[in-house]
Amino acid sequence: MDAIVLGGGLMGTASAFFLARRGVRVTLIERRRIGAGATVASFGNIRRSGRHLAQLPLAARSLAIWNEAQTLLGRDVEFRATGHLRLIFDTDGLDDMRRYARAARGNDLTLEELGPDDLRRRFPGLGPDAIAASFSPRDGSANPRLVAPAFADAAARAGACIVDEAPVLDMRQSEADFEVKTAKGVHRAATLLNCAGAWGREVAARFGEEVPLGTWGPQMAVTEPVPHRIAPVVGVWSRAHGAYLRQVERGNVVFGGAVPRVPVAPDPGFAHADPFSLPTQVASVLKLVPALGEVAVIRQWSGCEGYVADNLPVMGASGTTPGLFHAFGFCGHGFQLGPGVGDAMAELIATGGCATPLADFSITRFAA
Ligand SMILES: Cc1cc2nc3c(=O)[nH]c(=O)nc-3n(C[C@H](O)[C@H](O)[C@H](O)COP(=O)(O)OP(=O)(O)OC[C@H]3O[C@@H](n4cnc5c(N)ncnc54)[C@H](O)[C@@H]3O)c2cc1C
């Protein structure tokens, strides 16, 4: 069996890795550099709480792989199960958290509820005005710069052919196979997996499948390094845009949220950081950690991410084209899911079935 994976972000590299381990002859084609799309821009949150319930089985599959990433990939991608703390500042947030915690319980996700005293004792200095919090101890973060190159290298060691910096000039299906013509040569395979991220819509449209996907850039920033004091990833249960932050081991505090995403033109797909969003973000971050008031912000960035209208990704077999599969449009929360997406897509392609339920993500939901 052979396959072409289109797109070398986290989804494409993880898929190539797991396909190669299943003995599929796989070629990964990336038009730019491996991991340099939405993946490298990610905040790096490996969070399950608050996810759409339909995603939790896939998120559980993914978390199990994150826990083994160093062994599987042969290098440290800085996955740390530091826990995910979500602060609550109002009764709406408390109601939402409790409702979600009840609903998520059957999906291997247990959220501890912390009252204000527990919160202050266990996490001094975080959210002094919070009335409560949830804590998910097995979640955490990883380094978005490291993970896609690590999957691509591991895929190559497992036998995959990685073709990067290869603009795609044409792609078509003949009777026998798919043909992808790139600036570096023509590749053919019986299976084509569309992992083109925010650009997956264009690939799907070539095969007659329309997906309501918009391209947007979440706003991120990072501070200068300061002594390491913040262990968990910190977020908020909020009906508005909540801020979130984490402190990397080198001491910098990465943060995002609290402001609307900026629109991004998919061609060329470079997302701009908006300097005017920074004061609002910083004000929100200071509610989470007031001690950051004295710390300098040294950089802002964004990345082009595909958001599907119903906020769920597109995953599974094509509805129009035998041999074509999709895994794109991860709506700002694909980093956690990435390893599980690769493993699940490889299982689906290699065996024709998948132990993890994917029906809610099928592209056929838009066919009507
Ligand atoms: C600023 C930001 C912060 C985020 N924070 C988080 C977070 O904290 N937690 C979380 O879970 N998720 C987060 N996300 C979302 C997460 O990063 C993405 O969902 C995930 O990385 C998507 O991976 P991907 O492989 O689908 O897409 P990408 O990484 O964008 O990869 C797609 C690749 O396909 C290539 N490509 C496109 N078209 C073609 C073509 N025709 N031929 C060949 N190659 C092609 C592109 O060049 C690109 O490299 C964030 C996203 C952004 C932008």
Written account of the structure:
This protein folds into 2 domains: 2-62 and 144-212 and 308-366, FAD/NAD(P)-binding domain; 84-137 and 219-302, D-Amino Acid Oxidase, subunit A, domain 2 (D-Amino Acid Oxidase, Chain A, domain 2). Helices cover 28% and strands 26% of the residues. The chain has helices spanning 10-21, 38-41, 56-67, 69-73, 91-104, 116-122, 144-157, 200-206, 278-288, 334-351, and strands spanning 2-6, 25-29, 45-46, 84-88, 112-114, 132-136, 140-141, 161-163, 168-173, 178-182, 185-189, 191-194, 213-217, 220-223, 233-237, 243-247, 253-257, 262-263, 297-301, 305-308, 314-317, 324-328. The strands form 6 sheets. A 6-stranded mixed sheet has the order 8-2-1-12-22-21. A 4-stranded mixed sheet has the order 5-6-4-15. Strand 1, helix 1 (10-21) and strand 2 form a beta-alpha-beta unit. Helix 1 runs parallel beside helix 7 (144-157) and helix 3 (56-67) crosses helix 10. Flavin-adenine dinucleotide binds at residues 6-12, 29-32, 36-39, 41-45, 168, 195-199, 203, 218, 220, 302-303, 305, 328, 330, 332-336. The site of flavin-adenine dinucleotide (FAD) has 39 residues, from helix 1, helix 2 and helix 10.
